[in-house]
């Protein structure tokens, strides 16, 4: 006789099959990890870095919602009085709020307007260079500043624009003018920030676009030439659409960083004489938190800044999806 299976027996058989499949998948996964363990060893320092310096500090978010004493931080983090949004309200009502926010946004927007298209233009020029040796040498010279720290760049700028030994003021004197303290002038400081930022980042970002251009099918250029397209039209209709996915992704990242106006760069170059045009959120947090020991207040300011950055990223990503462009998620 043929064996009759009841519903409980069938369910038990299905469960056993599912367990076998799960064990098989876990075994396959562990085998793959074991096989490629050296690759995982390579990414291990990066994982540890992000855990220690990016994820573990998130536990300190609670500081923004409590009154923390500078003399007993850890005790107050655990047992301090919960004050809710008190410190956020203090920042929004502060006399410094509009100044630091406007400076941060203006400097970031200037950097975006000048710094974002610059590597695209440079990559297009390098890609069209006929002499490949010249293109490689030029590209190397262009991205060398990326490997200089802002400390070194700040030192170079202080000497370059010095009123005593500066090259720029030397030219000013040569034409009969009076030396100008550029780094202490509200009229010039933002321009110097933006210019040094572009010089520091343009070469490295160019590499990303050149790498994207290598993935464009050469037959597209050949078809464009057969249709009578010159270099300009090939750039507009072939090259730019071919790297548009990279442009959109980097634009989303840049929009998300609008409230990161360059803490290290600004801190090293600014002075009280230009606070009115250079004091950004990060330098304000540094002075209030590290110098004045207002931990709870500055934690709230930092959390506010990151919340706005998250909204900017989500908005830019949503806009990219609506325009049928590449998006982060």
Describe the structure.
The chain is mainly α. The chain folds into 2 domains: 7-51; 96-322, MetI-like (MetI-like fold), CATH 1.10.3720.10. It is built from 17 helices and no strands. It has helices spanning 7-35, 37-55, 73-79, 86-92, 97-115, 117-128, 132-143, 150-160, 167-174, 189-213, 218-226, 231-242, 244-256, 263-269, 275-278, 281-291, 295-322. α4 packs across α17 (295-322), α6 crosses α10 and α7 crosses α10. It starts with 6 loop residues before the first helix and ends in a 7-residue tail after the last helix. It is a multi-pass membrane protein. Keywords: Membrane, Transmembrane, Transmembrane helix, Transport.
Our estimate of the beta-strand percent is under 5%
State the secondary-structure class.
Answer: mainly alpha
User: What's the CATH superfamily of the largest domain, by name?
Assistant: MetI-like
Low-confidence stretches: none
How many domain regions? 2
Shape: globular
Number of helices: 17
CATH secondary-structure class of the largest domain:
Mainly Alpha
- SSE ordering: HHHHHHHHHHHHHHHHH
Largest sheet: none
Mean pLDDT: 85
Distance between the termini: 57 Å
* Second CATH tier, the architecture of the largest domain: Orthogonal Bundle
Q: How many DSSP E strands? A: 0
> CATH fold name of the largest domain, please?
MetI-like fold
Q: Roughly what percent helix?
A: over 70%
Radius of gyration: 28 Å
Short synopsis of the structure:
This protein has 329 residues and is an all-alpha fold. It has 17 helices and no strands.
Summarize the SSE layout with pairings:
Elements: H1 7-35, H2 37-55, H3 73-79, H4 86-92, H5 97-115, H6 117-128, H7 132-143, H8 150-160, H9 167-174, H10 189-213, H11 218-226, H12 231-242, H13 244-256, H14 263-269, H15 275-278, H16 281-291, H17 295-322
